Fold:
Amino acid sequence: MADNAVQFELVSPEKLLLSEEVEMVVVPGAEGDFGVLPGHTPVISTVRPGVIHIFEGGSVKTRIFVAGGFAEVTADRCTVLAEEAVPLDELDREQVEKDLQTANEDISDAGENATERALAEQRAESARAKLTSLDSQTYQ
Structure:
C-alpha cells in the first residue's frame, strides 16, 4: 500500500461494496464528520445517516449515502459497516420523497404498535437524511 493512501472498505449486510486505496475518506460519525488519512489514530465510531466522501487528487471522487452503521479506523485502514449504502448520484429525489411520505403515513397508521412505529420512524429518518444529502454538497 502506498504511504500516502489509506485502504477504505465499505461493507453492507449483503456484501463488500467497495475496497480501494484512497487519499482520504470523510465519514459522517455520530459526533460529527471525521476525516481519515494514513497514520490516523485507531478509533471505532457509530455512523449517522449521511454521506461518505472519498477524496483523490485533492477533491471528492465519490459520494456515498449511508443510513448508519459503524466505522473502524486504524493507521492504514478505514472500514465502514453500513446498514444501507447508495452512491449519491443514484438517489432519485422523487422516489425518496415518496418513501418519506409513505413512512410518515405508516407512522400515523401504526397506532399503538410500537414496533411498527419504530420501523416507520427509522425509514422516515433515513429518507430525510437522503434529502438533506442531496441538497447539501458539503465537500467539493
Summary: Residues 91-135 form one domain. The beta strands are 6-11, 16-22, 24-29, 32-36, 43-47, 50-56, 59-66, 69-73, 77-82, 85-87. The chain has a mean pLDDT of 91. The first helix runs from residue 93 to 109.
